[in-house]
Automatic annotation (TrEMBL), chain A:
One family name in Pfam for this protein: AHSA1
Activator of Hsp90 ATPase homologue 1/2-like C-terminal domain ranges (all copies): 23-159
SUPFAM superfamilies for this protein: Bet v1-like (SSF55961)
Family label: Belongs to the AHA1 family.
Species for this entry: Actinoplanes sandaracinus
Record-given protein name: SRPBCC domain-containing protein
UniProtKB/TrEMBL annotation, chain B:
Taxon lineage: Bacteria, Bacillati, Actinomycetota, Actinomycetes, Micromonosporales
Domain of life: Bacteria
Protein name per Swiss-Prot or TrEMBL: Helix-turn-helix domain-containing protein
Matching Pfam families: HTH_20
UniProt domain HTH arsR-type: residue ranges: 1-91
Entry-linked PANTHER family: SLL0088 PROTEIN (PTHR38600:SF2), TRANSCRIPTIONAL REGULATORY PROTEIN (PTHR38600)
Native source species: Actinoplanes sandaracinus
Length: 161, 106
């Protein structure tokens, strides 16, 4: 896997992330289409995701939860807006309450995923557009937590050497 | 005053406000100077400036009878840090996808 680019636009509140994989487009599509595969990578490493409902089609309803290190559950939902196998997927992602229902249906991050064949595999581009700072803050904290853990691990390794 | 990230989001969600911010980060401008740059009333521009001010994205100083609007970069840096964290998450996700692609091949 190679991260080709990662562009942050503070004004438009988007992150465009491009990575390439040494696998054909169809197989990369499967990590999105198959919820059992998806839940192995969607949550940050310390917040694994479980997909409780997964209707992988336009207009489809998705419910999931992530479980934190102390057992805290963070619920999420998607409203899938486009599925064009195996090249394009679009969905709105938001927070869900304990019943799995949207906390605020307008508080979403829109995500557009495109997959293209390259000479040696597949290129995946994800464009995330934020409408809410809370969502970004929460996800960023979950991501950063793991980043911090890794950094601490590296410091430990340096100190132990 | 505590400025929430949502104030910054709301302030940046409008194209005119983004444009105003870009101008005043380059150099301070009076509200009347800004008002001349847009096809809208002085009051409308003043309103946009007020939204930016609430989000602490701009500050005002007095120059005689005029109020000069200056851009503040710290809230933008904070947003950049948030996006950095989100980028870190996507790097982890891409690494996770790679692992699945490798494992499932075996």
């Amino acid at each position: 896997m190679t991260v080709i680019s990662s562009e942050k636009d503070v004004n438009a509140l988007t992150l465009t992330f491009v990575a390439e994989f040494a696998a054909p487009v169809d197989r990369v599509w499967q990590v999105w289409a198959d919820p059992r595969k998806l839940e192995r990578w969607w949550g940050p490493p310390t917040w694994p995701a479980t997909f409780d409902r997964y209707e992988f089609k336009p207009g489809g309803d998705v419910r999931y939860h992530m479980t934190g290190p102390d057992g805290t559950k963070a619920g999420g939902w998607w409203a899938i807006t486009a599925v064009e196998e195996p090249h394009r997927l679009e969905f709105d992602d938001g927070f869900a309450d304990d019943n799995g229902d949207p906390v605020d249906p307008s508080d979403i991050t829109h995500c557009v995923v495109t997959l293209e064949a390259t000479g040696s595999g597949a290129r995946m581009t994800t464009v995330s557009t934020f409408r809410s700072a809370e969502q970004l803050e929460r996800m960023a904290e979950m991501g950063m937590e793991e980043g911090m853990r890794q950094a601490m691990g590296q410091i430990d390794a340096i100190l132990a050497a | 005053m505590v400025v929430g990230a949502d104030d910054v989001f709301h302030a940046l969600a409008d194209a005119t406000r983004r444009d105003i911010l870009t101008r005043v980060i380059r150099s301070g401008q009076s509200v009347s100077e800004l008002a001349r740059a847009y096809p809208m009333s002085f009051a409308a521009v003043q309103k946009h400036v007020a939204v930016l001010e609430r989000a602490a994205l701009v500050s005002k100083t007095r120059r005689g009878r005029e109020q000069i609007v200056h851009g503040e970069v710290e809230p933008l840096r904070r947003m950049t840090r948030l996006l950095d964290g989100y980028e870190a998450l996507w790097r982890q996700r891409a690494a996770g996808i790679e692992q699945i692609l490798e494992e499932d091949e075996q």
